[in-house]
């Protein structure tokens, strides 16, 4: 897969300014590891896991997709490539992560190299919707990234064209359980960098329009609400040093509690 020129949705969503993407915490942790010859996955897990429920979420994706050694995976919005490193070690798949933000991409490459996993995991700094695909892949995964991308038609069409015939996509994402109030919409946009949120029916319709079928839509709102609440409490207890994350998780905690925001795990197959 080749890199593209410039991105087209970072400016729309202001994603680089979202509290979750404050890199000071990551850099502090990497500084403490600088003298360690070889790193392992646990060395950076306190910041590089950017989805909910940790490794359990990745195990769920492995089972849902039926990943096997030697298969190929694209991770949309791969962050620090923690998902790719785990899936490569756990399932033996070859993972290409697509990360929009150059600073996070660079840190991802460093962490993967220091883990000795660069042969099976790589990060590409690009906008997935503009990416040139060299050859189709078996699977696509995306964990809490699609919420940042309002142009679902372009996104899902690109995803379908990236997959082999019969290939599958696994998504963990937000959706609108009810019509969103203006206050909730503003918080999603300004704090979470989520400018658009479809309903269940609209989400499924968007996937079908792009050529996906066998769509399994599993709501996980209550499970995620509990996780986010515990994370919010933990960040408040750590105090002002975690102020950006405290703001982020307090906001998402309140959004889940208000029951307009929902969480979902989706599996779909390319026709």
UniProtKB/TrEMBL annotation:
Molecular function terms from GO: phosphoethanolamine N-methyltransferase activity
| Matching CDD domains | AdoMet_MTases
Query: Which EC numbers characterise this protein's activity in its record?
Result: 2.1.1.103
Reactions catalysed, semicolon-separated, are: phosphoethanolamine + S-adenosyl-L-methionine = N-methylethanolamine phosphate + S-adenosyl-L-homocysteine + H(+); N-methylethanolamine phosphate + S-adenosyl-L-methionine = N,N-dimethylethanolamine phosphate + S-adenosyl-L-homocysteine + H(+); N,N-dimethylethanolamine phosphate + S-adenosyl-L-methionine = phosphocholine + S-adenosyl-L-homocysteine + H(+)
Q: Which GO terms describe its biological process?
A: methylation
Ordered alphabetically, the record's keywords are: Methyltransferase, Transferase
Q: Could you name the domain of life of the organism this protein comes from?
A: Eukaryota
Q: In which pathway does it act?
A: Lipid metabolism; Phospholipid metabolism; phosphatidylcholine biosynthesis
Listed Pfam families: Methyltransf_25 (PF13649)
Is Transferase included in the keywords of this UniProt record?
Answer: yes
> Which residue range or ranges hold the Methyltransferase domain?
73-167
Reply yes or no: does the keyword Methyltransferase apply: yes
InterPro entries for this protein: Methyltransf_25, SAM-dependent_MTases_sf
Query: Mind telling me what this protein is named?
Result: phosphoethanolamine N-methyltransferase
Provide the organism lineage as a comma list: Eukaryota, Fungi, Dikarya, Ascomycota, Pezizomycotina
């Amino acid at each position: 897969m080749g890199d593209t020129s410039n991105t087209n949705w970072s400016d729309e969503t202001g994603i680089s300014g979202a509290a979750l993407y404050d890199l000071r915490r990551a850099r502090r942790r990497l500084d403490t590891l600088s003298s360690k010859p070889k790193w392992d996955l646990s060395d950076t897990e306190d910041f590089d896991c950017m989805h909910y429920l940790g490794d359990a979420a990745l195990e769920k994706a492995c089972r849902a997709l039926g990943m096997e050694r030697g298969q190929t995976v694209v991770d949309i919005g791969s962050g620090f490539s923690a998902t790719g490193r785990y899936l490569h070690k756990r399932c033996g798949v070859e993972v290409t992560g697509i990360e929009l933000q150059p600073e996070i991409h660079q840190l991802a490459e460093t962490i993967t190299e220091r883990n000795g996993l660069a042969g099976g995991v790589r990060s590409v700094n690009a906008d997935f919707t503009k990416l040139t695909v060299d050859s189709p892949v078996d699977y696509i995964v995306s964990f809490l990234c699609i919420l940042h991308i309002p142009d679902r038609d372009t996104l899902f069409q690109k995803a379908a064209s990236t997959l082999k015939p019969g290939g599958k996509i696994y998504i963990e994402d937000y959706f609108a359980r009810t019509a969103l109030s203006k206050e909730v919409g503003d918080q999603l946009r300004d704090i979470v960098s989520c400018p658009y949120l479809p309903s269940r029916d609209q989400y499924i319709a968007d996937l079908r329009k792009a050529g996906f079928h066998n769509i399994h839509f599993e709501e996980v709102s209550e499970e995620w609400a509990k996780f986010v609440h515990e994370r919010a409490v933990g960040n408040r207890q750590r105090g002002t040093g975690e102020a950006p994350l405290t703001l982020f998780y307090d906001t998402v905690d309140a959004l889940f509690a208000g029951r307009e925001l929902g969480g979902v795990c989706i599996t779909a197959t390319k026709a």
